[in-house]
Amino acid sequence: MTPEQLLFAQRSRRLYRWAERLHALPLPKSLKNRLSRALGRFLSPYRADLPKVLAGLQLGLGFSLAEAKVNARAWLASHGLFAVSLFDYPRMDEAWVKRRVTVDQPEVLARLVETGGLVLTYHSFHHNTLGVVLGQSGTRIYGVAASEKQAPDAPWVGKYTRLINAGSAARFGGGRYLFTDEMRQLVLGVREAFAEGHSVVTLCDNPTPPGAMPPVTVMGRQVHVGTGVVELARDAQAPVFFALLYPDLRGGFCLALHEAGVVLDLHGTGQEYFEFLAGVLRRAPWAWQGWAWWGDL
Fold first, then answer.
1. Of 77, 170, 171, 232, which residue has the fewest beta carbons closer than 10 angstroms?
2. CA atoms of 88 and 25, how far apart (whole Å)
3. Cβ atoms within 10 A of the Cβ of 222, count?
4. In sequence order, what are the beta bridge partners of 255?
5. C-beta of residue 55 within 8 angstroms of C-beta of residue 62
6. pLDDT (tens place) for every residue of the chain, 297 residues total
7. The pTM is what?
8. Structural domain boundaries enclosing 32
9. Count of other CB atoms within 10 angstroms of residue 183
């Protein structure tokens, strides 16, 4: 572990500890929401990435510096909201989803519940909560994720990683996580989920080393992405959906959805995936963690 990674792990633990204390306080929801946002702005370990986030918001979305600062503060606030909300996973049932989550395309969600398929999502601080929302909406979720065993920060934040994984998986509608360090079980689990009409949720926005597929473009920058689970969806003729869950910053969440259909072309699906992201970011610039690395592409 590098000194930078160690500092990030220590700061992450500090954020989660303060979030746990805040969550336990008997405060009005509106006040707790404001304090959660402030927690992220002041204690998020991603504060170190603010110069990159500001540059990304200006270059990627054409913001002025003043506009970028406002949205960068919202970006950090989103992390604080997640850190507190993870302790609410036991309460996030179907009624909670209906009350707190605004779905931009309910008809797309209904088709996902009916058919299952591959849900390609994005790093949003709240991507684990997406599985909760979908699972409590009626589709069984299998989430592809890295296990705690792969995380060098486990000695510092392992307790909270386990809370996130166990708490969210309990709301997956009978599904579970499929971990990337257990590749055989992951492939078998994905194939079984598609065959039974369930839903597989995976992230596909983090850069990977160049592979056989040409890079795709995201807001003027090029990125190589992994396609393993997408290839499994193509082979199974499973429909593909894009989904991004993000906070409205007022105490609720927004779920943006898009139905991409079956995979006919890997590169085309990858490009459509990032075009959907760009569209969502025009109305909610704080919704994507990737501003921290977009400028390095």
1. 170
2. 13
3. 11
4. 103, 245
5. no
6. 899 999 999 999 999 999 999 999 999 999 999 999 999 999 999 999 999 999 999 999 999 999 999 999 999 999 999 999 999 999 999 999 999 999 999 999 999 999 999 999 999 999 999 999 999 999 999 999 988 877 888 899 999 999 999 999 999 999 999 999 999 999 999 999 999 999 999 999 989 998 878 999 999 999 999 899 999 999 999 999 999 999 999 999 999 999 999 999 999 999 999 999 999 999 999 999 999 999 888
7. 0.96
8. 3-294
9. 11
Q: CA 104, CA 243: separation in Å to the nearest integer?
A: 10
Q: Total domain count for the chain?
A: 1
* Token pair belonging to 69: 């600062």
For Cα atoms 41, 223, 279, give the angle at the middle one, nearest 5 degrees.
60
The one-letter code for the residue type at 131 is G
| Secondary structure, 3-state, the chain | CCHHHHHHHHHHHHHHHHHHHHHHCCCCHHHHHHHHHHHHHHHCHHHHHHHHHHHHHHHHHCCCHHHHHHHHHHHHHHHHHHHHHHHHHHHCCHHHHHHHEEECCHHHHHHHHHHCEEEEECCCCCHHHHHHHHHCCCCCEEEEECCHHHCCCHHHHHHHHHHHHHHHHCCCCCCEEEECCCHHHHHHHHHHHHHCCCEEEEECCCCCCCCCCCCEEECCEEECCCCHHHHHHHHHCCCEEEEEEEECCCCCEEEEEEEEECCCCHHHHHHHHHHHHHHHHHHCHHHCCCHHHHCCC
Q: CB–CB of 83/16 below 8 Å?
A: yes
